[in-house]
Write a structure and sequence with these properties.
Elements lengths: L2 H6 L3 H4 L5 H9 L6 E2 L11 H12 L12 H15 L8 E4 L1 H13 L5 E6 L3 H9 L3 E6 L1 E3 L2 E3 L2 H6 L5 E7 L11 H14 L2 E5 L25 E6 L12 E4 L5 H11 L5 H13 L1 H22 L5 E2 L8 E6 L5 H12 L1 E2 L1 E2 L10 E5 L4 H16 L1
Parallel strand pairs: 1-13, 3-4, 3-7, 7-8, 8-9
Antiparallel strand pairs: 2-10, 5-6, 9-10, 11-12, 12-15, 14-15
Helix pairs in contact: 3-13, 4-11, 5-11, 6-7, 6-10, 12-14
């Protein structure tokens, strides 16, 4: 049986899902000697030893059996305490669900909220996995482009609200944003909340980068402006704050009344997160404050290194990001970001993610992750600046 025949025999919606444009490029450049990869959203530091030791201790104690579908009680209690402390609001542990990475939190939220032909309205550009998750459940993302101007990245709320139609079930708000670093203001969150209340819509808030912010202590959160029983799901992960991308542990916060629904989705998707890994996550929350502060300072300096290096280029435009560890830059005159990304890999030996991976309105843009060592960033800029200058 040929490949085409096999593909024709599966769910056509799944067969049509494209390969990630970022992964495609990474696979192309992974074996190139001396390449500096800035395409993937992760730093280059290993997980702190105290987190690994907590997981190893649990592993040595034999905590390798089936586990709580919602997450082990110590981790859910730690999440409640952490979120309550960071945001100054009471977040009950009963509202938290532990997931296999932030991606599962997104995926099962889409499974819960969207059916065939339902819509989620999202400021864009946005992490491409969001669109894929919506596609998998048969829904559709309605993009509302952010604008890049002298004031940085901005969102027109009127355009956001005008994009709501009869099939709209939710807003998807990623703030601080991947790839732009755009961070939604508190007053705009309140406006979105009020509109969602009037229309009976859900808000799905991706707040993964809420602690990686510059010039503020923490990004505004929908947890601070919404009631515990509102139509709100906040997704997050341990990956970025504590260098745990490979651990695949995330969480979500939702209405307590939906706890059994979320538990069922965990059961039938993954059957839970390994217990010993969850003990590492407990250590991250309880002991990881100093490490996170170091991570924020490291990324802050990394942001300044890349922005200061690229700012003199007349053909490069960007807004210095308020949050995340990404710079999203426009290269004037470039109409094929994928081709530019391949050229930078092959000729400059620097890996950037092509804007085309983030949606149709992102051609001519490139995403750069500045969460790696400052020495590597300076070396990357020494290659990238002349390559972009032409």
């Amino acid at each position: 049986m040929g490949d085409a025949e096999l593909l024709a025999a599966i769910n056509p919606r799944i067969a049509a899902i494209p390969e990630s444009g970022i992964v495609e490029l990474a696979n192309h450049g992974r074996e190139i000697p001396d390449l500096i990869p800035l395409w993937i959203g992760e730093g280059d530091l290993p997980t702190p030893a105290f987190i690994g030791e907590a997981a190893m201790k649990a592993l040595r104690k034999g905590q390798t059996f089936y586990t709580y579908q919602r997450g082990i009680p110590p981790l859910r209690r730690a999440l409640g305490a952490y979120l309550s402390g960071v945001y100054g609001v009471d977040v009950s542990p009963e509202r938290t669900i532990v997931t296999i990475g932030g991606m599962q939190a997104v995926m099962q939220t889409m499974q819960m909220l969207l059916g065939p032909d339902d819509e989620a309205v999202a400021p864009s550009p946005v992490w491409p996995n969001i669109g894929a998750a919506v596609d998998i459940v048969g829904g559709r993302v309605v993009d509302v482009p952010l604008s890049l101007g002298n004031a940085g990245w901005t969102l027109d709320l009127d355009r956001l609200f005008d994009a709501v139609g009869p099939r709209t079930k939710a807003f998807f708000i990623n703030s601080p944003g991947n790839p732009t670093g755009w961070t939604m203001r508190r007053e705009d969150q309140i406006a979105v909340r009020d509109f969602a209340r009037q229309r009976g819509l859900w808000i799905v808030a991706d707040e993964v980068y809420g602690r990686l912010v510059y010039g503020m202590d923490v990004a505004p959160s929908f947890l601070q402006v919404c009631e515990p029983d509102e139509r709100l799901v906040v997704v997050n992960t341990f990956s970025k704050n504590w260098s745990m991308t490979g651990w695949r542990i995330g969480w979500l916060v939702g209405p307590e009344a939906l706890g059994q629904v979320f538990e069922n989705l965990v059961q039938y998707n993954t059957s839970g997160v390994p217990t010993f890994l969850q003990h590492g996550a407990v250590a991250a929350l309880k002991e990881g404050g100093p490490y996170l502060e170091e991570m924020i300072a490291r990324c802050h300096k990394g942001r300044d290194i890349v922005c200061d290096a690229l700012a003199p280029l007349p053909n490069v435009r960007f807004a210095r990001p308020d949050g995340s560890f990404y710079l999203y830059l426009a290269v004037d005159g470039e109409t094929d970001s994928r081709a530019l990304a391949y050229r930078l890999v092959d000729e400059a030996r620097v890996g950037l993610a092509p804007g085309a991976a983030f949606g149709p309105d992102s051609e001519g843009f490139m995403r750069l992750c500045f969460g790696i060592s400052h020495d590597k960033l300076e070396a990357a800029m020494a290659r990238l600046v002349p390559a972009l200058a032409g």
